User: Fold these one by one.
Assistant:
Number 1:
Amino acid sequence: MATGSHLTIELNQDVEAKLLELSAATDRSQAELANVALMSYLDRELKTVDGIRRGLADIKSGDLVDHDKAMDELDAVIEAAEAARL
């Protein structure tokens, strides 16, 4: 793993135990596992923030979809997904 800056955090006992267990089970360092977990979390949260920003920009520009139309489209996607599972 590439070197970078260091961060010291206090883990609760449950997180520490799971990190130790996973590290032993996968023969990967705790630092590597923590980096992977943190990157996954940050990527997910940044996507959420980006979506919120885009939504706010749409509101500001008036680029909106009628609620009933949006729900009809959503229902159609759900129905198609359910039909594909059968």
Number 2:
Amino acid sequence: MAVVHTNISGGHTPLLNTVVERLARMMENHPRMRQIDHLNHTTDAELAARGLTRKDVVRHIFRDRYMV
């Protein structure tokens, strides 16, 4: 889960804080982020059984979107 600090100094409005909080929630609730979270909570042996390592998780989830 991403942690976003929205107490922005410098006279920004509460509206900006609300927008940032909502964007963070949208990101956290995205199905791909949930898949990443699920795979990050599996054991190395379970990842290996899927042919993955920890460093491959994000690349695996976004393989149809980005060529990384």
